[in-house]
Each structure stands twice: as structure tokens, then as C-alpha cells.
Design a protein that fits this description.
Helices cover 75% and strands 3% of the residues. A hairpin with a 2-residue loop joins strand 1 and strand 2. By secondary structure, the protein is mainly α. It contains 14 helices and 2 strands, in the order ββαααααααααααααα.
Length: 346
């Protein structure tokens, strides 16, 4: 990556340093997200015009249009945007802390931990959607705590965290499979439906927890962006530049884990958004530093686009979006590993 000149941008009392290219990428992603959102709101079994959607959002639509807009499509769109942004920022923070593009929550076991928590509630307690979401949240956080403790040795080492996380993920995958084999047919069906991850059937009840987490934690992550960039330079360099290393790393890790756990609790595991979105945003911005704002926009854009494509090809309830992101993400992971292998050989 080449060094790119930063320029100060000041909005009232808030001052930021951004590169022109990163700013342009952010604007393009925001516009693309807005366009795709409009297409998503107007496309489906009951096509609507943009004017109909706008009138309905301001309370001037008929009953049928209001049901389609405010009950079916708007919650789905908002949840896709919020979950995509939360997963992308979580992945961006963890990849920077680990110093490795594979250090995303769905590779190092945090998502599997959420799945285990949800499965325990479904299979053993026969809980409802609220209890399942709580189980997923607790499972993800406990898994992150376990990975952190097992990987800790005179500080949290990124490569060690990835290796430990992959091992923990493998064990949790086996545990999840065992739980499904012990479940009744009805519980196994419910568990499998949750495990594929999707936006079908989600509504406003699932949106509010993710919205609160995003509103509180994303600005916190963005505020720690400069410290995150300094931490990528190594602990000694960061300490020399006045960064409280352990406290900053603990705060960033807590933010990343909470974002991932709450997003997974709302939709089930959505594969590869946390892995791919930060890398794509970073490559577009040609930045050597974490690009968390662009990552959030890219994550939201990827999930909205994936959901729109699955709806258009397979119908409103045809294919969970988690399967689509998993298929696309698998190709991306193969390309990422292949490019790293070629770079190491060169």
C-alpha cells in the first residue's frame, strides 16, 4: 500500500483527518447503498414506485401499501443495513488487532459461539426468539472471552488468537452438530433454520437491539480508529506514541465482540460479510490504515445487495441470505488465500 496524503476535515468541534480517495470511496458507497435501498423497497411480488414508498413513509399511503412498506420491506432493509455494518466493523477491528485478514469473527469462532448459545436455548430450553437471541449474545461473548484467555501470553498476540480461534471454532462446530442430533424433529428444524442465517421473518423486535448497538458502538469504534492504526504498528511503537495499549485493545475487542454477537443474535450467522467487507473497503480506498467507516458502508451494501438478489431470484422467502453470502464468501476466501500464497512465494 502506498502512503497517501491526509487532509484535515473539521465539522464544528469535531476534527478528522481523511484521504481524498477514502472520502470519495465512502461517498460512492453511500450513494450505492441509497440506490440499492430504493430498489429493494420498490421491487418484489408487489412492485411500488419510489413516490408510493415516500408517501407511505410520511403517512399518506393506503393500507395495503403501508403493510408492504412498514411491515414487510422496511424492517428487512433496515436490519440488513444495521447487521451488515455491525459485522463489517467487527471484522475490521478484529483483523487490525490480529494483523491478519483471516482474523474475522466467523473464522476465529465468535460466530460459532453465538450459534452454540442459540442451539442450547432451542434444544435444551425450547426458548422463543427472544431467548434464542439472548443465548446467541451470551454464547458469542463467552466464546470471545475463552479465545482471549487461551490466546493471552504476555499480551494478546494476533496470530496466536487466530490459531486458538480456529481450534475453538472447530470444537464448537462439532458441539453444534451433536446438539442437532439430540434435538427433536421440531427443534432440529428450528435450529437449522436459525443456523443458515437470514432476514426472513425478522421484524422491528429484532431491529431495536442492533440499532442501539450500532448507534452506541460504531461511533466508539470510529473514535478509536487512530489508536487502532497505531496498534497495527506494534505494541512498542504504539506505547512510544502514547497509546495505552492494553486498555485500547481491550476496549476495541469488547466493541467488536459485542457488535458481532448482537448482529448474529438478530439474524443468525451471516457468513463472510465480516471477512470480506473490511478488505474490500481497504482495497478500494488504497489505504494502509483501517477504514472502518468505509467498511461499515461496504458491509451494509453487501448484505442489502445479497438479500435483493436472493429475493429476485428465489422469491421473498426462497433462500436465506446467509446461504448466498456463504457461497460468495467461499469464493472470496479462496481468492484471498491464493493471493496471499502467491505474495509469500514472490
Amino acid at each position: 500500500m502506498t502512503a497517501i496524503e491526509e487532509r484535515p476535515v473539521r465539522v464544528r468541534r469535531v476534527s478528522l483527518r481523511v484521504t481524498p480517495r477514502a472520502l470519495a470511496v465512502g461517498i460512492v458507497l453511500a450513494v450505492a447503498l441509497l440506490v440499492l435501498s430504493a430498489v429493494s423497497m420498490t421491487t418484489g411480488d408487489y412492485p411500488l414506485s419510489v413516490l408510493d414508498v415516500v408517501k407511505t413513509l410520511f403517512g399518506f399511503g393506503d393500507a395495503g401499501t403501508e403493510f408492504i412498506v412498514t411491515t414487510l420491506r422496511l424492517p428487512r432493509l433496515l436490519l440488513a443495513i444495521l447487521v451488515g455494518a455491525a459485522l463489517a466493523v467487527s471484522g475490521g477491528v478484529l483483523q487490525s488487532l490480529s494483523g491478519n485478514p483471516l482474523g474475522s469473527p466467523d473464522v476465529i469462532g465468535f460466530t460459532e459461539g453465538s450459534a452454540t448459545g442459540a442451539l442450547l436455548v432451542i434444544v435444551l430450553a425450547h426458548g422463543g426468539s427472544g431467548e434464542v437471541a439472548l443465548g446467541a449474545l451470551v454464547g458469542g461473548m463467552l466464546t470471545a472471552l475463552a479465545v482471549g484467555l487461551l490466546a493471552y501470553r504476555r499480551g494478546l498476540q494476533g496470530f496466536r488468537m487466530i490459531l486458538v480461534g480456529i481450534g475453538v471454532a472447530a470444537m464448537l462446530t462439532a458441539a453444534n452438530s451433536y446438539l442437532i442430533t439430540r434435538a427433536s424433529l421440531q427443534d432440529a428444524y428450528a435450529a437449522q433454520a436459525w443456523l443458515v442465517g437470514g432476514l426472513n421473518g425478522r421484524g422491528w423486535d429484532e431491529i431495536w437491539p442492533v440499532a442501539i448497538a450500532v448507534v452506541v458502538l460504531l461511533p466508539l469504534a470510529f473514535g478509536y480508529g487512530r489508536r487502532l492504526a497505531l496498534l497495527e504498528m506494534g505494541d512498542d511503537s504504539a506505547k512510544g506514541l502514547g497509546v495505552p495499549v492494553e486498555r485500547s485493545r481491550a476496549m476495541l475487542l469488547a466493541v467488536a465482540v459485542t457488535l458481532c454477537a448482537i448482529a448474529t443474535a438478530a439474524t443468525g450467522p451471516i457468513a463472510f460479510v465480516a471477512l470480506a467487507a473490511p478488505q474490500l473497503a481497504k482495497r478500494l480506498a488504497r489505504s494502509a490504515k483501517p477504514a472502518l467507516v468505509s467498511s461499515a458502508l461496504m458491509g451494509a451494501l453487501l448484505l442489502v445487495a445479497s438479500d435483493l438478489v436472493t429475493r429476485l431470484v428465489f422469491g421473498e422467502e426462497g433462500l436465506p441470505v446467509g446461504i448466498a453470502t456463504g457461497a460468495i464468501g467461499g469464493l472470496y476466501l479462496m481468492w484471498l488465500l491464493s493471493s496471499q500464497w502467491r505474495r509469500n512465494r514472490g
